[in-house]
Amino acid sequence: MARSYYSPQNLSFLLFEVHELEDLLSSPHFEHLDRQSLEMMLDSAKQMADTFLFPHYEDMDRNEPQLENGNISVHPSVRPYLDAAGEAGWISLTAPLDYDGMQAPGMMNAAANFIFSAANNGAVQLSGLTNSAANLLRSFGTEEQKRYFLPQMFAGKWQGTMALTEPQAGSSLSDVTTSATPRGDGSYLIKGQKIYISGGDYIGAENVVHFVLARIDGAPKGTKGISLFVVPKYRKEGENLVFNDVTVAGLYHKMGQKGSPATHLMYGEKGDCVGHLLGEANRGLAHMFQMMNEARIAVGIGASAIASAAYYASLEFAHQRPQGRPLNNKDLNMDQVTIINHPDVRRMLLMQKAITEGSMSLGLQAAHYADKIDVSEGEEKEHYQMLLDILTPVVKTYPSEMAIQSISQGMQILGGGGFCKDFPLENYYRDIRIYAIYEGTTGIQSQDLLGRKVTMKNGLALQLLSAEILQTMTDARTFDELKPYAALLEENMGRIQQVLTHLMPFAMKGDVERYLADANLFMELTGITLIAWQWLKQATKAKQALVNGAQGSDAEFYQSKLHTMRYFFHYEVPKSLGLTHRLLDATTLTLVEESDTVFI
Amino acid sequence: MARSYYSPQNLSFLLFEVHELEDLLSSPHFEHLDRQSLEMMLDSAKQMADTFLFPHYEDMDRNEPQLENGNISVHPSVRPYLDAAGEAGWISLTAPLDYDGMQAPGMMNAAANFIFSAANNGAVQLSGLTNSAANLLRSFGTEEQKRYFLPQMFAGKWQGTMALTEPQAGSSLSDVTTSATPRGDGSYLIKGQKIYISGGDYIGAENVVHFVLARIDGAPKGTKGISLFVVPKYRKEGENLVFNDVTVAGLYHKMGQKGSPATHLMYGEKGDCVGHLLGEANRGLAHMFQMMNEARIAVGIGASAIASAAYYASLEFAHQRPQGRPLNNKDLNMDQVTIINHPDVRRMLLMQKAITEGSMSLGLQAAHYADKIDVSEGEEKEHYQMLLDILTPVVKTYPSEMAIQSISQGMQILGGGGFCKDFPLENYYRDIRIYAIYEGTTGIQSQDLLGRKVTMKNGLALQLLSAEILQTMTDARTFDELKPYAALLEENMGRIQQVLTHLMPFAMKGDVERYLADANLFMELTGITLIAWQWLKQATKAKQALVNGAQGSDAEFYQSKLHTMRYFFHYEVPKSLGLTHRLLDATTLTLVEESDTVFI
């Protein structure tokens, strides 16, 4: 039997008990769905992953994409997966019924993304990108564009990409130089280079639909002059598809995640690349942010998924591997015990479990807010948008950064085997490292959180989030057992407030550099606090279930939730002490003027 | 020009100014050496590394060892390197003059190991192992064995290995089952399997000299029945070398460090593997600890070396890569600035530098104590031995664990490029991960520190170490600027004491499991404290040099030391707060009896 890579029981707990997915179904938008149909979807996602993804995970890593004569070959399992995903409706899961979509909640999309990523994070990137790209087109495309592109994309035949990064600009989108010259017929000639484009081209994709940031001739400098274009590899002329002058200039050789090719692309090298404007001119970055934000949440969920797969792999090893004896009874006449009996191994496993399930829960919390936006109106809608906005950089970052640590602990459990390709852990260890880099590095996310999200509308988003957290604390406090943990969470909320009180004067007087110098540490503190929130939420639901008489393996499941929550509060939350201490420290060391010749 | 992978200026500073290598030369044992000859050695080590190691680093990673028909091929640059290293005397650096050694201080060996590992950590493992194995033979071999084996090993022709780990035992050496059956002529028939044996066999090694732990028939169970044997691949019979029945059963496919093959070996599969006892019967583990302890220190120094190479690679990138604008002046009419001007990048670089140079200094501190042992007698010798004993697990662990973090930050600086083989960082990221695993995992080291080293002789080692640290604080306090940092270090020493006071009662009443449950966190706290000690020591020497009138680039070097010291105290030391909080927490969560069904 193949090893397990996630827990369906845990995923259902998070979806239905913690994040109340069923409540959403009362909205008219979801009236065609019921709990049973959602559960069937989850089962079929698992079957999909078991059949088309997990069995190819290792082989995909061993046979990375190859570039030959401008064409990129990918693993032979990619095409069958995309066909199956298209056919089963996974790429159109959230699309409206009248576009042949499943019109399912975004939380279901997040759940499927989780399952698929746990099974094979490389392949699923391709379908995930197409899905997000299709959503972008749904928002900003003309009816004609939608009717033309969406069916092919939903079928998995045409690949979607997001083409932002340029060689000379990297994360600095202000400096994007790809140009768009009006052709007079409403279309544009696109010219420029984009790098690190995932799924940018490969044999087996019948077409590639690029969503490209570019500058219309004469547009203002900076981000205010960026527009969004849809640029297919093959464009329609009459009844034919003709080559649209998008070529592969290079293929990156990645350390991991080898299922999907990362490409360097040239648009319009021969002056014949045609693109169409999506949405408003010069508003392209704002438009693109829809896809970027979706992708950021998907990255966070994907990271928790790899952490999950690694957790179950090391758990299996710890259950099976005999080594050593209990520290309190080293009787050499006894057989060796399995290593899961060693406190240090248990600590590492608990860490993996706490990071994984806490991160999953935070990701689904974001998906829950996104669904609420879809089904609400007016001020309520706006509030959910604010909640989603402030959560997004944290959902991207905490799971990505901490899954690195968590998988590293998992590798440690395997000892020498952990470092070898003869065991499963090292593959996850290599794959996960990109999550803290792409879709905006941890540095970018941290500046977004502290520099933009915390300050927007005079701190309204943080206020709304605090109210949500307060609600969780109130719910938890109905149980004596959880009161101390609610108090610890409250303490951490106080720490965040204290840090902001300390930092805000710098922002006020316009010293952004000082204000943001330790934004990454503020992100870490916020991440720990929000995961603590999610753990308290999970623990409250678990406690309720136990009080309501859960028995047998269900009771064990809920007890395990309580124990893992305790781990998080006793081992992870204390890291807030050092972070807060540093964030309140008046000594700066990283500003240029004070350390000109440091790096020798 | 090839990029730089270490700073000769920094290495000299640590050797001569911080750890007072020159003072050692007053001992008669080193009377054939002077400062100039040591400096020439350092230059020639750099030349060696520039010529034979660094140029092959990347290619070695891309062409890993291959096993075919029981023979392992390694990279073609391995043999020339070993020949050159043998010829230049690097493998016999510390060996006595009358064995044709250089009779140099161990600190020089550490320095050469550092330079070589920074250049190419895979290849140097082979010469390093042979060097340590030769030292073991010098300690426990007969004169005849020494005259027979040492010249070949010193020449780099015969490879040395340490063969401890077995498939069924892993880190649990009590459960070693490889057997040694007396043949009646003083030699033994060896039979068993060993796994993860670095440099265990390869084409180009004329012979492999294995230092094998095995059990003489009828020996007591556990570690008290383990003996040490020298077991060559080819044994001498008359004038001939005949095959000694040591075969390769497998080759591991490692995630990194592909210069040296990790092997699975079978001893005596055909019943014809002859070994000779080294030292006393049943004292093998104690004997082997000489090599293991040397190897542990070498691992710590090697880890700091990889961190160094990664630091200079990301520093170079940060100096060259333009991206974005200063946060306080985002004028789009200005050119982009190089990313070294961003506080977040500076923070990451400072972290890399602080970890790298702090770890180097701690490793050289250990080498300094080892040299002191060699040149002292009686109680003084014993005290240095205690100091070395308590330092060893920390020297192994802190650099290994923190170099992972540090290199990860370096990779982050490169953004998407960091994840790609098209840039240098990912190779270091893969290589470094084994350091926290081999030669005793972090878990094993932490139990050694808290369970053995802290408690031995009623805590004498820790007392002696505290006195050394106190001396550093006293020296530092001659400068007002350093007083606050001495106070921070003192605070951390207080934290360690407080934690021990809290934990010791568990050890007293024999509850070792509880006592050691969070040993890894105690290790982390100790590691931070000892690196803070090393930084205060470096800062004091830097301050002295500045007060003494250092000018120009020297002054910049010393200022940079002071700045990096401040980084360590302001950013890394605060992590002690959370660790101490957890270590003083009465709630246990990882003991078996209280969490039987946690892992679901």
List the helices and strands and how they pair.
The structure is a homodimer of 600-residue chains.
Chain A (H helix, E strand, L loop, with lengths): L7 H11 L2 H4 L10 H19 L3 H6 L3 E3 L2 E3 L4 H11 L17 H14 L1 H20 L2 H12 L3 E6 L15 E4 L4 E12 L8 E10 L10 E6 L1 E4 L2 E4 L2 E6 L10 E6 L6 E5 L5 H37 L22 H33 L2 H36 L11 H8 L9 H12 L6 H17 L6 H26 L3 H5 L2 H29 L4 H21 L2 H10 L16
Parallel strand pairs in A: 3-6, 4-6
Antiparallel strand pairs in A: 1-2, 4-5, 5-11, 5-12, 6-7, 7-12, 8-9, 10-11
3D structure, described in words:
- The structure is a homodimer of 600-residue chains.
- In chain A, α6 (106-119) packs across α9 (284-320), α9 packs antiparallel against α12 (425-432) and α11 (378-413) crosses α14.
- Among the domains of chain A are: 8-157, Butyryl-Coa Dehydrogenase, subunit A, domain 1 (Orthogonal Bundle), CATH 1.10.540.10; 160-282, Beta Barrel (Butyryl-CoA Dehydrogenase, subunit A, domain 2); 450-592.
- Chain A has helices spanning 8-18, 21-24, 35-53, 57-62, 78-88, 106-119, 121-140, 143-154, 284-320, 343-375, 378-413, 425-432, 442-453, 460-476, 483-508, 512-516, 519-547, 552-572, 575-584; strands at 66-68, 71-73, 158-163, 179-182, 187-198, 207-216, 227-232, 234-237, 240-243, 246-251, 262-267, 274-278.
- A five-stranded mixed barrel of chain A has the order 4-5-12-7-6. Chain A has a two-stranded antiparallel sheet with strand order 1-2.
- Chain A is 55% helix and 12% strand.
- Chain A is built from 19 helices and twelve strands.
- Chain A is α+β, with helices and mostly antiparallel strands and 600 residues long.
- Chain A is globular.
- In chain A, a hairpin with a 4-residue loop joins β4 and β5.
- Chains A and B meet through α10, α11, α12, α13 and α16 of A and α9, α10, α11, α12 and α13 of B.
